[in-house]
Amino acid sequence: MRVVLAEDLYLLREGLKQLLTAHGFEVVAAVETGPELLRALLDLRPDVAVVDVRLPPTQTDEGLQAALAARKQIPGLPVLVLSQHVERLYARELLADGTGGIGYLLKDRVFNADQFVDAIRRVAAGGTAMDPDVIAKLLAQDERRAESTVARLTVREREVLELMAEGRSNAAIGQRLFLSESAVGKHTASIFGKLGLAPSDDDNRRVLAVLAFLDRGP
Amino acid sequence: MGLATPRPGAWTQCVGGGGSVRLVVMTGDWVVRGFVATLHALARGGCAVLSVLLLAAHVALMVPGFGLGLVFLLPWPFVVMRRATNAVRRLSGGVPLPYLPRPPAPAPEPDGRYQYNRRLYRSPFWPRQQRYLEWTLGDQATWRDIGWMVANPVVGGLLGFAPAALVLGGLAAVMTAAVGFLPWWALVPGLAAATAGLATAPALVRAHDAWARRILGPPQTRIGSLKAWLGIRLLALLRMLALAGLAVVSALLAVASLAALTASCLGFVVALPPVVRWTRAVATVRRRLADRWSGVRVDQPYRPEPALPPLRPDGLYEVGGHLYRSRTWTRYHQQLSWLRRDPATWRDMSWTAADPIVGGALVLGSVGALAYGFLGLVIAGLLHIVHAPEPPGLRVFADRPWLAVVTGVALAVAGVLAAPAALRAHGRWTAVLLAPTAEARLNLRVQQLTESRADATQAQAAELRRIERDLHDGAQARLVALGLALGTIEQLVEQDPAGARRMLVEARQTSAKALTELRDLVRGIHPPVLAERGLVDAVRALALDAPLPTTVTADLPGRPPEPVEAAVYFAVNEALANAGKHAGAARVAVTIDYDGSALRVTVGDDGCGGADPTLGSGLRGVRHRLAAFDGTVRVSSPTGGPTLVVLEVPCALSSPRTSIS
């Protein structure tokens, strides 16, 4: 699998390169700046890109902007965005085009190599990988709001929803929560019912639906 | 109604034709239009008849209604008859409806009873009736309708029936002359009348509609231009008169100052401070009036009152080279030297002497000209002309009273015309001596800056202390733990690989926790979104995370300087948190805009209001932080809401940056 890597810190860039190579990825380009990234994405058309939000030369959200610009030209280009902080604002912008193939993770998630690589593979396959922090923020806020819909879910259903929003399949959720796949299926159906969403088998659409639902406030 | 627009066909028809054809077509078109307008006018004449009928009905109702006290008879028929006036409004070119909206049904109190005018009723019937009565009879439009009914039979009747009467009368004359009952020359006035009727019909229809709009439409809020013009001048004259009265006060103060100065030269220094204080009070009033009446801003020039000097080791206070034992005396001498050294004191004094002269001249030029022109010349001149028994002395133009009258009128008009200019000039004159000198202005600014700098440095120090504490107790401690764990793992890795692995998992968790803490800390110092996206998107991110549904509207042509952005960001954060905590609001709206010199952010919620206007401790900190940029925080929170927090920071914007959301 061909990967383009964008990270301005040398140590982290080299570390990620090693990690990816060790897991059988081919790092076709490891770049430092926003313009370089955009060029690499458009020229090389990798299977997946791993991008740091903040890049030189401006040290603002160059990486995010380059990724979004590339996805405008190549719709659905899988991009996994890494950042020191997660913002709902960015998550919303990344998901806005609705074509999937989006990951948005805290840099800390690299610590757990297996999960990180799993997330990259999910994104490359057109799925979604949202950081648990984003999901937690959304849920916490929804609870605080007066007409909370998530409050109507059972504890188990909420756990399922969280994992589902991270982009995991029913099988993976079942593994994590020690449930059978059919039991998870029942839970998801019940969640969709309570949230008023039409059930769907498609992983990516599930996340989009969940996020769209949680995001409709402001 | 489209009466005045020529039909496009009239022109296309005549393209190929000759001059005579064109003339015939145009004449025909004109006659048709005249006839249509006459019919429209006739319909409006019908309204005049209708208004007579309505008036009769109203009078019939009002006699028992008001005369016999059966007020409840009035409202419902009044409201029903509005249908007729509404039809007239539609006919008269769509006059907008002037009526107040109908009151809602009375809502019960918690105990199930209904309140009206501080009385409780068991059933909603009476509150509803009384509200209904208040709604109909309290509406100005009801009485304007009745005024229309009284006046319209004449005005509307004339305007509406005149064209038809002219046309019909003219045609009748023409007919009878043609048949031979009238002499042949009756044709000429007959035709003229008919033509006049057709020609004036559209204009009369327009006049009727304008009249209907004037009296049946909503009352005009704009004052008529002549009234406004006269009002402004009259107000200016009254103000000049008031200033003349204050000039007398200045003159008295000037005398008092002179006396006090003479006394203090003779060694009686006690006289000076009270006079200076009175002068300051009067001058302060005049500064305020200059701002309010003349639109000339005059700032306070006075130096701040000094604090008590530090106690010397020998227990004495030093003021200007003299040592005093008692505090009262120290303060007294301190004040004396403070008042004496402030140049504003001496400028105030010279102003009290000059104001009666300069200000008095301006008053004479406006109020004086009017008064003398009217009383001294016009009235006196007229009395001379009619040879009143004991005419007052006419000193100027005594032998030519007519000339005196004309001059008097001219003088009075000039006085009225000059009043606003005189008022403005008066304001400028006040600024000449009462405004702070450049030096005083600088002194004030320095004092202001010293205060805000002290605040800013204090806030900065506290912030650094907090960061230090957070790092020390948080990330630093975790890194120490991590180092320890790694050391242990190093030892364990040979002997107990399983234990080492367990410790590795723990170490990873520790490092993740340290990262989380660092992230929170960074967010508190300078939020990363702010650095990456600027103020608007950072506020959007805040709004997304806010506990209440929050909308953000922004109109910023560029980016404010970074420190301003950060200060405003934290201010908005605080305001949003407050709205979420105790406003009882359902939604919050944030607007960000720039008026060319200052960045303004408004945070408003639809909560119950009543927030403490002196601000909570959080917003007080925000105020200090913004003060470093000459920024301000204003809170408006009337009981019942809404609450508005307005932040304003003067700043320049840098080049625009495109934002993708």
Structure at a glance:
The complex is a heterodimer of chains A (218) and B (661). Chain A has 218 residues and is an alpha/beta fold. Chain A has helices at 10-22, 34-44, 62-73, 88-95, 113-124, 132-144, 155-166, 170-177, 181-195, 203-215; strands at 2-6, 26-31, 48-52, 79-83, 102-106, 128-130.
List the helices and strands and how they pair.
The complex is a heterodimer of chains A (218) and B (661).
Chain A: E1 2-6, H1 10-22, E2 26-31, H2 34-44, E3 48-52, H3 62-73, E4 79-83, H4 88-95, E5 102-106, H5 113-124, E6 128-130, H6 132-144, H7 155-166, H8 170-177, H9 181-195, H10 203-215
Parallel strand pairs in A: 1-2, 1-3, 3-4, 4-5, 5-6
Helix pairs in contact in A: 2-3, 6-7, 7-9, 7-10, 8-9
Chain B: H1 8-13, H2 19-67, H3 75-91, E1 114-116, E2 119-121, H4 125-137, H5 140-179, H6 187-216, H7 225-265, H8 272-294, E3 317-319, E4 322-324, H9 327-341, H10 343-385, H11 401-434, H12 438-473, H13 475-495, H14 497-525, H15 528-533, H16 535-545, E5 550-555, H17 562-582, E6 588-594, E7 598-605, H18 617-627, E8 632-636, E9 643-650
Parallel strand pairs in B: 5-6
Antiparallel strand pairs in B: 1-2, 3-4, 6-7, 7-9, 8-9
